[in-house]
Amino acid sequence: MTRVLILFGPPGAGKGTQASRLSAALALPHVSTGDLFRENRAKGTPLGKKAQTFMDAGQLVPDDVVLDMLFDRTSKSDCREGYLLDGFPRTIPQAEALSKRLAATDRVSVLNLIVPDDVLLERITGRRSCKACSNVHHVRTAPPKAPGRCDKCGGELVQRTDDTTEVFGKRLSVYRQQTQPLEGWYGRAGNLVNVDGNRAPDVVFEELRQKAFPEQRGGRV
Fold first, then answer.
1. Residue partners of 129: CB distance under 8 A and separation at least 6
2. Single pTM value for the model
3. What is the pLDDT of residue 215?
4. Rounded to whole angstroms, how far apart are CA atoms 113 and 131?
5. How is the beta sheet containing 127-130 ordered, strand by strand?
6. pLDDT band per the 50, 70, 90 thresholds, residue 135
7. Is the domain 3-28+81-211 a CATH 3.30.930.10 member?
8. What angle, rounded to 10 degrees, do the helices at 33-43 and 46-56 form?
9. Ramachandran assignment for 170, one of left (phi > 0), alpha (psi -120 to 50 degrees), beta (any other)
10. How far is CA 25 from CA 59, 75, 84, 139, 217, in A?
């Protein structure tokens, strides 16, 4: 049996931070489709070259190519017991395609972070990233000791272009239209657990850890 943990949540919900912590706590490799794209392209693998042809043509990489990359990664020995998916699936067709490729014995658990829109906006627009080391501060919850300077390396802190109110609004709209319907899809299968993400990160993490693989509530998806 392979454990497949899927982490959901809108932009700003804290998926990246929590995914890293869960990966370590549960001894599950953190598999990000974005990282897989970059790795395959950098290494010039056949899958990377195939994906690049679509990107060069200004097209989206087909789901079957994304899944080929994903299952190439999860076929490695460190994923034998399970893995954590971050950033995939994003749509119901992707979830359906993923389901068809999973083994009948695979155990799927979906954790969905729930955070109010106004809190998401405050989290995103308050972030400041270091130009030198990419360390992230927040103007309210994690301000730097020296204004405008990274605590880690002293580099300049800036607001990324995708952390503005306008861009966040577009990202959230895409999430609501394309990804949020997956809540109902996985919920009907009995694999979804909602977690209140509007709390201290340590509190959220502990609930995520405890609910990662509860007794199976429904069938395989």
1. 135, 136, 137, 157, 158, 159, 160, 163
2. 0.86
3. 54
4. 29
5. 136-138, 127-130, 157-158
6. very high
7. no
8. 100
9. alpha
10. 38, 21, 11, 29, 23
Give the residue extent of every domain in the chain: 3-28+81-211
> How is residue 178 annotated by DSSP?
I
Pairing of strands 82-86, 30-32: parallel
For residue 61, what are the CA distances in angstroms to 47, 99, 132, 163, 216? 11, 19, 31, 25, 33
Structure tokens at 152: 């880690």
Query: How far apart are the C-alpha atoms of 106 and 87, rounded to whole Å?
Result: 19
Residue 219 has pLDDT above 60, yes or no: no
β-strand pairing of 107-114 with 30-32:
unpaired
Q: How confident is the model at residue 218 (pLDDT cuts 50, 70, 90)?
A: very low
Question: Known catalytic residues?
Answer: 15, 90, 127, 160, 171
Would you say how long the chain is, in residues?
221
Distance of CA 4 to the CA centre of its chain: 13
Distances from the Cα of 112 to the Cα of 2, 156, 183, angstroms: 20, 34, 8
**3-class secondary structure, 83:** strand
Residues 33, 69: contact at Cβ < 8 Å?
yes
Q: Residues 44-49: contacts with CB within 8 Å, 24+ apart? A: 47/72
